[in-house]
Amino acid sequence: MSESDSDEENFIRYGTPLEPFEEDEVPTKRKYQQQPDQYAVDEHGRRRFHGAFTGGFSAGFGNTVGSAEGWTPATFKSSRSEKAQRTNQRPEDFMDEEDRGEHGIAPRHMQTHSEFSGQKRTRPRQYHDGPIPGEPVLEQLVQAVHETAAVKMLRAMGWRQGQGTGERVSGQQKKRARDQHKVYGCYIPPEMRPVSSIACIIENTQTEDDNDSSSSEVDYDTLFAPDDYEPYILHRKNDRFGLGYSGLSRHSVLGNLVGEYGSQPSSSRSHLVMKEKGRKVSIRGQAFGVGAFEAEDDDIYASEDMSHYDFSLGGTDSKTDRKPVREKSNNVLEGFVKSSAPLPSVPSYPAPALPRDYRPAAAGARRSRFEPTDQPQRDQGLGRHELTAEARGALLGETPLTKQPEPSTKTIDKEEALLKVLGRNVNFVSKDTENKSIDFIPITDSGKELTKVFKPFASDRKKQARYERYLVDKAVVWERGGESDSLTEWEREREMVEFEQAAKLYKPLSGIMGDRFTHASEPDEALNPLSAVAKSSINYGLATREQTEAAARGVYGVMTRREAPWRPDSLVCKRFNVPEPGGVRQEEKKDDKPKVSYSIFSYMESSVHDKDSFTKEQSTFSGSKSLQREPPKPSQTEPTSNTDEITTKTDETMSSKGIERLFKPEITPTGFRKRLTVAELFLKESEMNKDQGKEVTETINKFDKMDLYKSIFLSDSEDEEPIPDKNKTDFIDVPKNVERNTSPPRGIFANINFDELNSWKRNDDKPPTGTKKDEEKIEEKDSNSNEEQYYGPKIPDNLKKRLEADVGDVVTAVQEIDSSSSSDSWVDVKEVKKKKKKKVKKHKSKHKKKNSKHKKKDR
Amino acid sequence: MSEISVLSTIKCNQQTIRSVRFNVDGTYCLTCGSDKKIKLWNPHRELLLKTYGGHANEVLDAAGSCDSSHIISCSADKSAILWDVTTGQPIRRYRGHASSVTCIKFNEESSMAVSGSIDNTVAFWDIMSRRNEPILVLKDAKDSITSIQVTDHEILTCSVDNHVRLYDIRMAKMISDYIGHIITYGSMTRDGQCYVLSCNDNTIKLFDKDSGEILNTFKGHECRDLRLENAVNEKDSLIISGSATGEVFYYDLISSNVSQKLVHGPKPVVSLSHHPTDCYLLTASENEIKLWGTKKMEL
Question: Which GO terms describe its biological process (chain A) (predicted)?
Answer without folding.
Answer: mRNA processing
